[in-house]
Amino acid sequence: MKHLFKPAITTAIAAAIAGALSAPAFAQQGPIKVGFMLPATGTFANLGNMIENGFKMYVNEQGGKIGGREVQYFKVDDESDPAKATDNVNKLIKRDQVDVLVGTVHSGVALTMAKVARETNTLLIVPNAGADVITGAMCAKNIFRTSFSNWQPAYAMGKVAAERGHKNVMTITWNYAAGNESVKGFQEGFEKGGGKVSQNLTLPFPNVEYQALLTQIASQKPDAVYAFFAGGGAVKFVKDYVAAGLNKTIPLYGPGFLTDGTLEAQGAAAQGLVTTLHYADNLNTPRDNTFRLNFAKTYKTNADVYAVQGYDAAQLLTTGVKAVNGDISKRDQMILAMRSAAIDSPRGKFTLSPAHNPIQDIYLREVKGNNNEVKGVAIKALADPARGCKQG
Amino acid sequence: MDISTFLVQCLNSIQYGLLLFLVASGLTLIFGIMGVINLAHGSFYMIGAYLAFSIAPFFGDQFIIMLLAGIVLSALFGFVLEWVFFSYLYQRDHLQQVLMTYALILVFEELRSILVGNDVHGVKAPEWLSGSIALGDVMTYPVYNLFASAACIVVAIGLYFVVNRTRLGMMIRAGASNRDMVRGLGINIRLLYRIVFAAGVALAALAGMIAAPMASVYPGMGGQVLIICFVVVVIGGIGSISGALIASLLVGFVDTFGKVFFAQMSGIGIYVLMAILLIWRPEGLRSKGY
Known about the structure:
The structure holds two protein chains of two kinds.
Chain A: H1 2-22, E1 32-38, H2 45-61, E2 65-66, E3 69-77, H3 85-95, E4 100-102, H4 107-120, E5 123-126, E6 143-145, H5 151-163, E7 168-174, H6 177-192, E8 196-203, H7 211-220, E9 224-228, H8 232-243, E10 252-255, H9 263-266, E11 274-277, H10 286-299, H11 305-323, H12 331-339, E12 342-345, E13 348-352, E14 358-368, E15 371-382
Parallel strand pairs in A: 1-3, 1-4, 4-5, 5-6, 7-8, 7-9, 9-10, 10-11
Antiparallel strand pairs in A: 2-3, 11-14, 12-13, 13-14, 14-15
Helix pairs in contact in A: 2-11, 3-4, 5-6, 11-12
Chain B: H1 3-34, H2 41-59, H3 63-84, H4 94-115, E1 132-135, E2 139-142, H5 143-165, H6 167-177, H7 179-184, H8 189-215, H9 221-236, H10 241-261, H11 269-280
Antiparallel strand pairs in B: 1-2
Helix pairs in contact in B: 1-5, 1-8, 1-9, 1-10, 2-3, 2-4, 2-8, 2-9, 3-8, 5-6, 5-8, 9-10, 9-11
C-alpha cells in the first residue's frame, strides 16, 4: 500500500502549493515580520526597551496592525557588541526571515547591520544609532533613520557655544564612532562661529573612570567643556564633573544624550545643564502631549527621545506599507512613499533628506527638576550634510 | 603637568587602586585558598551596588550602619551560595569552573533585570560626607571619595590583622599553602572554605556599596571590574592579599597616568603592565598567604 500513498501524498502537496501560489497576493498575506535588534542587556538596555515600547505603542494605536496587516515581532539582544553584530543580524535575516529590521542603539553595531542590510537588500530602519555614515557614505535605498545623525545635535551645540561667547573649549568623549563624530560636529559648528577647540580628550569605551581626565581639564582651564556620553556613563560623568566642582567655573555642554533617561540618577548634579537635541520633555504641542500621556499610561514611565524615535520608526514603516496596500514585495514603490513621507512626530513634523535622515528642528534645553525643558530652537530644519552619500 | 595637578592625579590613582583592592582581595582569597576560578565575582560587586540602592532609603544618613548591614547580608548570601553551588566546584577542573561561574553571571544579570529593571540609578552620599575640599582654584575633591579610600584602608588593615594574627587567619594561610595537609590535621576544611567564600563575597559587595554613590548603579557594571580584578590578582600573585594591594595601586597609577599621557592606548596600558610582569615574575609579585 505504501507505494500508492507516496505518489498520492506528493501530488496532494504539490496541488496545495500550486493552489497557494496562484491565489491573489492579498489572500496569501501573512503577518509582516518585524525584527528588533536592540540591546536588552548592558549599559544601553533601557534605551533598547524604550525604543521597542515606542514602536509597539504606535502599532497598537493603529489597532495592532501595520497598514492593515498583522505584525509578528522577532527580537535579538545585540548586547551593544559590534563583534557579535554579524551573527546577530543574520539570525534575524536568515533564520527568522524578517521583512524589516529595526535597530539599533550602538553605532558600531548599526554599521554592521547597515552593511548586511545593503548586501541582502533587507529594509532597515535605524531608531537611534547616530553614525553619520549610515546616511552618509553608506547610504542606500533600503536604509532609513528616524533618529538623528551624531553631527546634528553636536553642530547645533557648537553654534550655541560660539554664540554664547566661548572662545576656547575642550571636548571629552569615548573613543568610538558616535563620540568622535559628535565631537567633530561640535567642532565644525563651534569653529564656524569663531571659537577654537583646544584639546579633544578621549577614553576607551565603555570605561567610566573619568577622574584623571577631569583633573586634566581643571589644570587647563578652558572656557567650557563639550562632552558626549550616554546611558550609565553619562550619569557618572555628570556626577563626577559636579563633584569635582568644575561646573562652577567651566560650563558643561553636550548633546541631549547626556541628560536623557538619566536625570533621576543624576539628581541635583544635572540641574541647569544646557543641551541640544531634536526632542525635549515639555514641547507642549497637542501631538506631543497626547503621545506622552498615552505612553505614561501604557508603560508607567515618562517617554523620552528614544521612545519617540521608536514610535516614528513604526510611523515611517506604516506609511510605506499603506502606500503599497500591504504588498511589501513592491519595494521600490514602498521606498518612494517612505522617502517622501511627512512624519507627524511628537517632536514636531519632519521630512527625510535624500539620504533618508530626518530634517528636523534642534531644540535648546535646560535641566529643571526631572525634565529637560525646552528653552528655544537652536537651529530650525537642520539637515545632515550626508557627506559621501551618492543618492540624490 | 604642574606639581599640583600631578599630586591630584596621584590622589586619583590611589583612590581608584584602593577600591580595586577591595574587590580584588575577595577574588584572590577565593582563588588562592580554594582554587576556584570565580568569574561571578564581578556580579557580587554589582549585587553590592544594587543592594546599596535598595536598602539606602531605610537607613537615611546612617551610612556606616548601612554598610555593616550590607556586609552581614552579603556574607550570609555568600555562605548559602557556597553551600548550594560552589562547594561542588572544588574537585572540578578549571574549565568547568569557568563555564559554571560564567553561567552564574548570566543568571545574576537576568535576576537583576527582573527584580530591579534595567534603569541606571543613583545612590546619594550621606549628608555628613557630601562636602568638597578645594584643591587649587578650579577643582574640588569630594569628601566622599576620601571616605571611600579611608574605608578601603581600614578594611586592608582589618584583613591583615585577621589573616596574620588570628587562628582563623592561620588556617587560611595554611589552606592556601597546602590544602591536603590542613585536612589531614583535622581542621574542618569545608567550614573554613565556606567562611572564606562568604568573606570574599562580602568584600566585593562592600566595594560595590562604597562605590555606588560615586559610580552610579547600572547593568553590566560588574563586567569591567571583573576583568581588571583578574589582572590585579594575576599581577599580585594568586592568594596573596598584600600582592593584591600592591598590584591594585600599580594598576591605579598605570590607568590614571596612561589616560593622561597615552590617551589612544590607555585601554591596553594595564594589560601591557600585566604582560611585562608575567615575563619577569610568572608567579606574581608575592607568594601565597599574606
